[in-house]
Write a structure and sequence with these properties.
- The structure holds three protein chains of three kinds.
- Chain A has twelve helices and no strands.
- By secondary structure, chain A is mainly alpha-helical.
- Chain A has a single domain, classed as MetI-like fold (Orthogonal Bundle).
- In chain A, helix 8 runs antiparallel to helix 10.
- Chain A is elongated, with a radius of gyration of 22 Å.
- The two termini of chain A are 37 Å apart.
- In chain B, a hairpin with a 2-residue loop joins strand 1 and strand 2.
- The radius of gyration of chain B is 24 Å and the shape is globular.
- The model of chain B has no long low-confidence stretch (mean pLDDT 82).
- In chain C, 32% of the residues lie in helices and 23% in strands.
- The longest helix of chain C is centred in the middle third of the chain and has 18 residues.
- The chains are: A mainly alpha, B mainly alpha, C alpha/beta.
- Chains A and B meet through helix 6, helix 7, helix 10, helix 11 and helix 12 of A and helix 1, helix 6, helix 7, helix 10 and helix 12 of B.
């Protein structure tokens, strides 16, 4: 392999990789579409401080509850906050919670999955039992229970969500490891005297990574939806932070009085973001485990 | 393996899982935050009052004793006491559960009908625009937060079009009374069934009207996986010989598709139903909140607002038990229907 | 007017890898009352050809070009309803595996009632069952067994049931796709006898698709040999067996063990059929052909007349 520095390699490989995606049929396009949506929203969130017409937290920047107009293209809410600015920056919390929970899931779930399934025996059985119990439980309910006890905050929300989704990683890694463990080249490596740990890292881990990526993308989507759900039942964050979840929750109460714009736009953003990740995840799964082609 | 040994083995497997679940909930509620009792009160509280409060709820005892009390209580059907008024949580659970059950049943009906019909349609027009649109719908529907969809439904159908009510389960005072024979009354708690038993068409219509939007919302959000599952199975089955042979006999497409091919696809759909049950309950929590549906989900959310941690514990445990039992039942049913599955 | 006329038919299977031409520019016609044997190796396209005559090629297969006229009907372009009415009533189809071709949860009687009532809705269930029973009797099965399920029959009897279902509405054309492949030799002989007898008494036009040249010799007037989606040779049975023209036909006939020839060394055709996703240039058979010369590697041979037969081979193409 060449000695290019890793950063350069990634960038150089990114564009051909993207082009390669379009050649992979429908799945490739789906991934590309999802990735585009996600990137656009991410960019929008990042540059929001520069493009927001008003500070999203400032109250009374306009008349309370005014419908979409030229000054406030997306209207204002009951506190007189500008909805457009809130939509621009409301994704930040979602991204933070999602990234944090996915990271925790991977950091916790992947090693446990690798270790337990590779070692086999009791460790595997016990770990599987624990993971299956969590997996079988209604996700949101568990997250609610944990979030309720931990209290509000980004970290706590992320942790509650992480606990719910760790089993998904565990399962997929376990099934992959069990398959790979039996494959000839893993056996060959063992016969050549490779130690358990090195087999694990150099042989099994690289093959498991595609599945992890696929699960992680879908996990992102789930994390966003669960975060919105947690906020909806009141376990979210302090009011002042701009958050689509909060707008959804408050917007609800305003609906009966005919104020539709507070809930609709943030809601659409959540849908788009979750959709983007879901499309990416589905496309990736299709790519890595193609369904039977007739 | 015979059916009986499978059932026994499966039950034996469920027991440790339930134990783990119960222990996990216990740890989360009693251990995680430190002291659920003081957490309940927002401000500082007189230590004497706090101790009395704890004593009434059994929260002053050492953790191990609390754990044993908790488990033995569950065996007796005691899900703890509410922090708000010390009333038994089980009472609330059993009065609120039928509403959730009814919602779940109807949502399942919609979920399966929409999912299967769309899946079949997609498989019949393979690789065409309808097929791709349906597939996209199947993937995308899950990405919509159920409460957002619910609000949109309310906005359109209830507020603008005035076709359906915006919330609640039925007009006050119109609850169906169920079966009455002489002095004996029996209610199932499921309004549709009860109004039929009562023989009251007005209440039946009303129950359905109130049920429609919530179950439609919940069903739509979860149907995606069924769309994809049905489509996949049908595509495989439609290739099989006896389908081609049936077509060669000139049988109508509809007969071939629904009568022959769908039969085969059915069993996996049944399993998936079992797997989706947990997701159904989770979705029900949000749906009930959105539509002010008086079920267990809304009760849970209520209790969160009141920081009633012991009640939250009771409800969460109940949810877990219901899911465990339903999974067990589905697994056994599936093994009965398909002898290949018994391990 | 031929009963069935196929002109330059092309059927492709669209897969992710490539578009595979399962049937490539095949032209064929069947006069009423004649019998055609369609032979070739597995994967040569004969089944696909059979299925195309009633537009039953399963996706991802598609009839891409060409014309098929069946008793005046344009099979390729006619509306769905029209071709559906043809199937079962004007054309009977028999498949290879009777076990998977019959609906396991339906009684035989129900199969008959279903097909009869689909095409002739006025017929009562009682009458339909009667016709079914008569048919079973004709085929050598006890009529009382009309109430049994498919799995209660042996392989040979199931195949008879299939034949019964295919013929009960009195079609003019019968297509049998490997009807005896899943049966043992003795039962095979019985079924072939049955087919011959029915053909005579009902005046059927028969297309017999098989890889077994033996049964073709017994039953067919004409034989078409297919290779890799094309027709290699087409001729009267007697001439083809006496004097096979195409090298492939010759090799096929040579590979059939002959119990009367003493000291015969079994021969076979070296190589394997081509990968239709990436077909060789020129004649598709040339990599395995003992007589291949330069032209074979570059140019595809056309199906041309030679005496009374048609053959697609440069050996006979004197242009």
């Amino acid at each position: 392999m060449s000695d290019e520095r890793p950063k350069g390699r990634i960038v150089v490989q990114l564009f051909p990789a993207l082009k390669d995606l379009t050649r992979r049929g429908l799945a490739g396009w789906v991934i590309l579409a999802g990735a585009t949506v996600v990137s656009l929203i991410a960019i929008m969130t990042v540059i929001s401080p520069w493009i927001s017409p008003y500070n999203p937290i400032d109250i009374n920047v306009g008349p309370i509850l005014s419908p979409p107009s030229s000054q406030h293209p997306l209207g204002t809410n009951h506190l007189g906050q500008d909805m457009l600015s809130r939509v621009y920056s409301g994704g930040a919390i979602m991204f933070q919670v999602a990234i944090l929970s996915v990271t925790v899931c991977i950091v916790v779930g992947v090693p446990i999955g690798l270790f337990a399934s590779y070692t086999g025996g009791y460790t595997d059985k016990v770990a599987s039992l624990v993971m299956d119990s969590i997996y079988a439980f209604p996700g949101l309910v568990l997250a609610i229970a944990i979030a309720a006890m931990l209290g509000p905050g980004v970290v706590n929300m992320a942790l509650s969500i992480a606990v719910v989704y760790v089993p998904s990683y565990f399962r997929i890694i376990r099934s992959q490891v069990l398959t790979i463990k039996e494959l000839p080249y893993a056996e060959a490596a063992r016969m050549m005297g490779a130690t358990g740990r090195s087999t694990l890292f150099s042989y099994i881990l690289p093959n498991v990574i595609p599945s992890i990526v696929a699960v992680a993308t879908i996990n992102f989507a789930d994390a966003i939806l669960t975060a919105a759900g947690l906020t909806f039942v009141g376990l979210g964050l302090p009011i002042s932070t701009p958050d689509w979840g909060w707008d959804l929750t408050y917007g609800r109460r305003l609906l009966t009085s005919g104020t539709w714009w507070v809930i609709t736009f943030p809601g659409l953003m959540v849908v788009l973001l979750a959709l983007g990740f879901t499309l990416m995840g589905e496309g990736l799964s299709e790519l890595f485990n193609p369904r039977l082609q007739r | 393996m015979s059916l009986r040994s499978y059932i026994i083995a499966r039950i034996l497997l469920t027991i440790p899982m339930i134990m783990l679940l119960l222990t996990f909930v216990f740890l989360v509620v009693r251990v995680l935050p430190g002291d659920p009792a003081s957490l309940h009160f927002e401000k500082q509280v007189d230590p004497q009052l706090l101790l009395q409060f704890k004593r009434r709820l059994g929260l002053d005892k050492p953790l191990e004793i609390q754990y044993i009390d908790y488990l033995s209580g569950l065996l007796r059907g005691d899900f703890g006491k509410s922090m708000q008024d010390f009333s038994p949580v089980s009472q609330q659970i059993f009065s609120a559960f039928p509403a959730t059950l009814e919602l779940a049943i109807w949502a399942t009906i919609i979920m399966i009908s929409v999912g299967v019909v769309l899946g079949v349609q997609a498989s019949r027009s393979y690789n065409s625009l309808p097929d791709h649109s349906i597939r996209v719908f199947g993937t995308a529907s899950y990405a919509i937060p159920v409460f957002f969809l619910g609000e949109v439904m309310i906005m359109i159908f209830a507020i603008y079009l005035h076709l359906f009510p915006a919330g609640d389960r039925i007009y006050a005072g119109m609850e169906p009374t169920g079966l009455t024979i002489g002095d004996m009354h029996w209610k199932s708690g499921l309004y549709v069934m009860d109004s039929i038993l009562e023989g009251n068409p007005e209440k039946l219509l009303m129950s359905v009207r109130y049920l429609f939007l919530p179950s439609l919302t919940l069903g739509m959000v979860l149907c995606g996986i069924f769309v994809r599952l049905t489509r996949g199975n049908m595509l495989e089955t439609l290739q099989l010989d006896f389908v081609t042979a049936a077509r060669a006999r000139g049988l109508k497409e509809r007969t071939v598709v629904y009568g022959y091919a769908l039969r085969n696809a059915f069993l996996p759909i049944l399993t998936m139903m079992g797997l989706q049950f947990a997701a159904l309950l989770a979705g029900a929590v949000l749906t009930e909140t959105t539509f002010s549906w008086p079920g267990l989900g809304r009760y849970l959310v209520d209790r969160i607002t009141f920081r009633d941690y012991t009640a939250i514990q009771g409800v969460v445990v109940f949810f877990g038990l219901v899911v465990a039992i339903v999974s067990l039942a589905v697994d056994i049913l599936y093994a009965y229907l398909d002898p290949r599955i018994r391990f | 007017m031929p009963l069935l006329d196929i002109q330059s038919l092309v059927v492709e299977y669209h897969t992710v890898r490539a578009n595979v031409k399962a049937v490539d520019r095949v032209s064929l016609s069947m006069e009423k009352g004649r019998t055609l044997g369609l032979v070739g190796e597995s994967g040569c396209g004969k089944s696909t050809l059979g299925l195309s005559t009633v537009r039953l090629v399963p996706p991802p297969g598609k009839i891409v070009r060409g014309h098929i006229t069946l008793d005046g009907i344009d099979v390729v372009n006619c509306p769905d309803e029209e071709i559906r009415r043809v199937r079962g009533k004007r054309v009977g189809y028999i498949f290879q595996d009777p076990m998977t071709s019959l609906n396991p949860v339906k009684k035989i009687g129900d199969h008959f009632v279903e097909i009869i009532q689909t095409h002739e809705p006025e017929v009562t269930e009682e009458d339909a069952l009667k016709r079914g029973k008569d048919m079973l009797e004709r085929l050598g099965i006890l009529p009382e067994r009309i109430g049994d399920f498919p799995h209660q029959f042996s392989g040979g009897m199931r195949q008879r049931v299939m034949i019964g279902l295919a013929l009960v509405l009195g079609p003019d054309l019968l297509i049998a796709d490997e009807p005896t492949t899943s049966l043992d030799v003795i039962v095979e002989a019985q079924i072939i006898e049955l087919l011959k007898e029915l053909k005579e008494s009902l005046g059927l036009t028969l297309i017999l698709i098989t890889h077994n040249i033996g049964i073709v010799a017994e039953t067919a007037d004409r034989v078409a040999v297919m290779y890799a989606g094309r027709i290699a040779e087409l001729g009267e049975t007697y001439s083809l067996f006496e004097k096979p023209l195409h090298p492939y036909t010759q090799a096929l006939l040579n590979s059939v063990p002959n119990i009367t020839k003493k000291g015969q060394v079994l021969s076979w055709i070296p190589g394997a059929p081509p990968d239709l996703a990436e077909p060789p240039v020129g004649c598709l058979y040339h990599p395995r052909c003992a007589y291949a010369f330069d032209r074979c590697k570059k140019e595809e041979p056309l199906l041309l007349r030679h005496d009374d037969s048609e053959v697609a081979c440069h050996l006979y193409d004197k242009r």
